[in-house]
Amino acid sequence: MNVFRILGDVSHLLAIIILLLKIQKSKSCAGISGKSQILFALVFTTRYLDLFTTFISVYNTVMKVIFLICAYITVYMIYVKFRKTFDSENDSFRLEFLLVPVTGLSFLENHSFTPLEILWTFSIYLESVAILPQLFMISKTGEAETITTHYLFFLGLYRALYIANWVWRYYTENFYDQIAVVSGVVQTIFYCDFFYLYVTKVLKGKKLSLPMPV
Q1: b/e for 110-147, b at 16 or more Cβ within 10 A?
Q2: Distance (Å, rounded) from C-alpha 178 to C-alpha 110?
Q3: Structure pTM?
Q4: Domain boundaries in the chain?
Q5: Is the dihedral of CA 93, 26, 75, 9 positive or negative?
Q6: Tens digit of each residue's pLDDT (9 = 90 or more) over 157-168
Q7: Gap between the Cα atoms of 206 and 119, Å rounded
């Protein structure tokens, strides 16, 4: 395990912690896409089924369990505990536009045609687009709270660090996973505009705002 993967995992975990603390402290899930959080919970569920079949390391097992628990706690907070603050009107992205093509692609392009492998592939493809409902929500409202932008920044940083991890593994281990790499690059591309706005506005103390659609 190299430093890029560890930093990527830490960045990912930090993003989730920021989100959970934001919701708990404000007792509101305003500005948070519940649909994105459902997709992330689905990503972790389908990816970490190997918890029941394969032991890799204590670190690997603990991180998987933490991500699973946090994902479902987030969904619970949005749809149950603080459901009155949930902005369902603006969280209107059609999930079938993501789930249908991702499901089809996972059957067509995978490492081996077995249930666990297809589900793992599904999780990789789905993660690359799971943030789209959140970005769509921001584009509809025209702005995002500062704490929400911090969450998105660390989530995007996690993918960028994983790209560095794959580059490192390619040159040190001659390891290359086309499905994971291509999906990770696609996911990082979705964050590019956000990264620019984060650096030019949020880090300068300004609120992230977007032009409202006509």
Answers
A1: beeeeeeebbbbbbbbbbbbbbbbbbbbbebbeebbee
A2: 10
A3: 0.89
A4: 3-205
A5: positive
A6: 998 898 888 889
A7: 41
